[in-house]
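Researcher: Please predict.
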Amino acid sequence: MQASRGPRPFDVATRQLIDRDPAAWLTWIGLPVDGPVVPLDSEVSTVLAEVDKVLQVGGPHPWLAHLELQTSHDPRLPLRLLEYHALLLHRHEQPVASAVVLLRPQADGPEMTGELLRADPVGELSIRFRYRVLRLWQRPVAEILSGGLGVLPLAPLAAVDLDALPSVIIQMSERIDREASPDVAGNLWAATLLLLGLRYDDRTAGQILRGVRQMRESTTYQAILREGREEGQRLGEELGRAREARRTLLRQGARRFGEPSTDIVSAIENIADLDRLETLLLDLLTAESWSDLLG
C-alpha cells in the first residue's frame, strides 16, 4: 500500500486541464466521444483515493474512461491500472477503458506494453488486461496544436525539437488569444509553464519564453509570468526535496548495506518521484540489502 500524499503540482495542473476539456482528451487518446463527458471525481474518491481521473461518457451506451498521467517510472503501474479497472467495473457496472499518458521518457519502462498477462498456478492464462499507452514525446506536435484547448499545454512535451519550440509557443499563443477568455488563458499558460519543467531546465525554459515575449507582447504571455510563478516555486521546492531524499537514501543505505554499486546509484539517481523516495527511506528500516530495498 502506498503512503497517502497530497496532490502534487503536476497532478493539479493535468487534472484541471482534463476537467476543462474532457472530450478533447478522450479524442486525443483515441477513445470515441459518443455522448456528454462528465468527471466522476466526487464518486471515485470514496473508492480510489489515488486515481488520477475518471470520466463518465454518456449516450446510448454509457461507459467510463480511466486516465493515469505519469512523470516517473512505476513498475507496478499495470497492476494498479488493473486494480482501478476492476473496482470501477464493480462499482458502476459499465465498460471501462483504461489509458496511461507517459509525460516524459523517465516514466517509461519495459512493463508498459499495453497488456498485462497473468497465469494461474497450473499455467493457464487467467488474466489478460489491455490498456492504452501514450508516450507524449513520440506524439506529433501538430495533432496537439490542432486538438482541443485542454490538451494544448502538452504541445511542448510532444515530438518537437528545441529549435522549433518558440514556433510552437507562438502557435499556442495565437489559438489561446483567439479562443480563450483571459481567465482560461492564464490557467492554460500556468499549466504550460509547469509542464515545460518536465523536459527543460529553468534557464532554457526562461530563454524560450523571453524570446516569445520579444517577438510577441501578448496578454497571454503576461499570464505565463503571472500564473506560472507560484507553480514554478512549488515545483522547485519539490525537486529540492527529491534531491535531498536521494542523497539521504544513498548515505543511510551505505551505512546499512555497504557502498552501492554504480548500477544502484544510477537507479536511485533516476528516481524523480518524491513519494517513492520517501517510501524507500522508510523501507530502509526493514530491508536487508540494496537489491531487497529496490526490488
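Model: Residues 219-257 form the longest helix (39 residues).
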